[in-house]
Amino acid sequence: MSRRWQGLTWDHPRGYAALRAAADRTGLIDWHTHSLEGFESAPIAQLCEQYDLIVLDHPHLGEALAQGCLQPLDRLLPNEALRSIERNSIGLTYASYHMAGQQWALPLDAATQVMAVRPDLLTRTDHAVPVQWQDVLALSRQTKQVALSLAGPHAFLTLLSMCAALDPDLTLDDGKRWHQREVLQQACEWLAELAALSPVSVRDANPIALLHHMTTHDDVLLCPLVYGYVNYTRTAAGNALTFHNAPRVASNAPGSILGGTGIAISQRCQIDAPLIEHLLWLLGEHAQTHFIAQHAGQPSHLSSWRDPGVNADSSHFYLATLDTLNAASLRPRHDGFIALQSRASAFLREGLFNRSSPATLADGLNTLCAPHSTIAERNFCD
To answer: Against a cut of 0.90, is the pTM above it?
Structure first.
C-alpha cells in the first residue's frame, strides 16, 4: 500500500528515527526532514501547504493560528485520549500546545535547556558538577572551558533561561509580560562574562553541533544551558556526555526554557481512523518507553522519564534532568515572536562578540522586547 500522508520533521535521529520506524510498520506516513534551523524558523503556513503532519515547537503557534493553517485536535481526537495525554505528559509539554482554548499539537518529544558535561574532563578540575550559577562562573574562570549555546535563537533562549532562574514566578507565554530591569542586568552580566571566556571553536555551533563537538574535542568540558539530547549519552566514537539539571539561583528551581516538539495536523490533511490510531499509539506509555526511547527518540511521557531501564541505557539522562523539565518555562507564543526571537539573538551575539557592557545589552533587550509584548494582546492568547 502506498503511503497516504506526508509528514515533516527535523533532520536529527531524535527527530526522525522513531517516526520513520513507526511509519514503516503501518505504511501510513512518509516522513521528510529539514534542518534544525528550518525547524526553528521556517514559515509554518508554507510548510502546512506541503505537508499533512508537521513536527513543530510551541512558539510557532501564534503564527500558525494567525495563518489558520492547523486543525484543532479537540475536533479530531477523542476527548478522553487527549485528557490521558495531558495527565501523563511531563511538565508543560502538553500545555505548551494549548492556545485560544484549543489543543493544536500532541507532545511527542520533551526537551529543555539543561547542563551538558564531559565527565572525564570535569574530574581533572577541583569542581563537582555545578548546581548554582555562581559555581558555573567559578568553573569558567578557572578553566576557560565552559561554553555557551549562542547560535540561531539560542543566545536569546540562554538569556531567558538565566532570567527564569532569577525570577521563576514570571510567565512570558502570553507575550504580555517582560522581565524587570535588574533581572535582565544580572542575566546579561553572567552572559557577558561567560561569553568572553567561552571557547571560540563552538561560538557558531547550534546545539547539535556543540554537543557533537564536546564528544570529539577536549576544549569544552561543560555547557550550562543547551537543549538536552539523550543521543549524546552514548556515542559510537568519542566521549559520552552526561546531562544534569540547569543551574539554580539560591533555592529557586532550575531556570530553563522549554523546547521539545509536538505533532500538529495541517488544514490539508484528510485524517481518518488509522491515522488517529497511529498518533495515539505514538503518545502512549508503551510506545514512548519501549519504542521511541529505543529508536533514538526522547519521550514526553512522564513514566518514560522515570523508567529504570530507559535511565540505565542513558547514564540517567532523564532522572538527572527531571526537575528542570518539570520547572521549565514557556516562551511567548504570539504571532511575531519567532521573528523577535531571531532579532534578539542577533542583537545579543553582536553585543557579546563586540564586548558590549551588560547595561547596554539589557537596555537593547528592553527596547526590542518590552514594546513588542503588547502585540500579543490582539492575537491568540489564552
So the answer is: yes
